[in-house]
Amino acid sequence: MKNGIILAVLSAFTFSIMNVLVKAASETIPVSEIVFFRSLIGTILVLFLMWKYQVAFSRKGIPMLFLRGALGAAYLLAYFYTIAHIPLGDASILAHMSPFFALIFSIVFLKESVNKQVILWMPLFLIGAVFLLDPFSFDSYTLYALVGVLSAMLAAAAATSIRYLSRSHHKFEIVFYFLATGTVISIPLMWGEFVMPSLTGWVFLIGIGVVSLIGQFVLTSAFTHENVMVVEVVRYIGIFFNVLWGFLFWGEVISLGSLLGGACIIAGSIALSRRKKGKKVEKAA
């Protein structure tokens, strides 16, 4: 097995561990507080890396950096909230709707072209979302699932901003703004509901910060060893990991609707990842 594929599997496994820690911590700690400590720990670690590798802060593109940070922070809040309230497997499947939104954002904001074959696959995402959201149930699960869809949309928006910023900024700086903004935004949100973590809670919070950063580094390494398309497809094994942990630790059983919805979303995402990149359309003056 190629190193890139092994690293892609390891990254999916690592992020599934982070999801387990988030769900476990959310039983006693508010989501906003989890986001705060996750972001704070990551900010400190990234600052250390920037100092070690002498990466300076840019003086240009500051508004876009803050926008990327705000989108990333909003994504974390929405995704962690979803993990806290619905089965891990369902939350993971909903998060994997991001390629659908990323495609739309790339067309609208990056002015990238798209072929007709891609458009034909789009209905699969909508069908998959209907199965997962189950709009005819009209219960609280639908609200949580909608937040899960929102997290996928925010992840896609953040990814689009990263693609734009990567043309002129170092990856450490982009990550710093994401984590630092998450730290600041989560402070007022957790202000009135702060809970002093127990010893176990501190273990969860520190683990979330460290494990998530490790997962990001492993994923980056995977992209340096293997084709992006291959890595993204292999990462769908993360859904299996999340379903497994949900069953083992919380007795969660994925429903038939979730299986059907997940199959549609996975099939659509794989189809999108296999498409040939369309030529960029020149931006209007």
UniProtKB/TrEMBL annotation:
Keywords: Membrane, Transmembrane, Transmembrane helix. Residues 3-132, 144-273 form the EamA domain. The chain crosses the membrane at residues 34-53, 65-87, 93-111, 118-137, 143-162, 174-191, 203-221, 233-250, 256-273. Pfam families: EamA. It is found in: Endomembrane system. It is a multi-pass membrane protein. The keyword Membrane applies. The keyword Transmembrane helix applies. Its main location: membrane. GO terms for cellular component: membrane. SUPFAM superfamilies: Multidrug resistance efflux transporter EmrE (SSF103481). Belongs to the EamA transporter family. This is EamA domain-containing protein. It comes from Alkalihalophilus marmarensis DSM 21297.
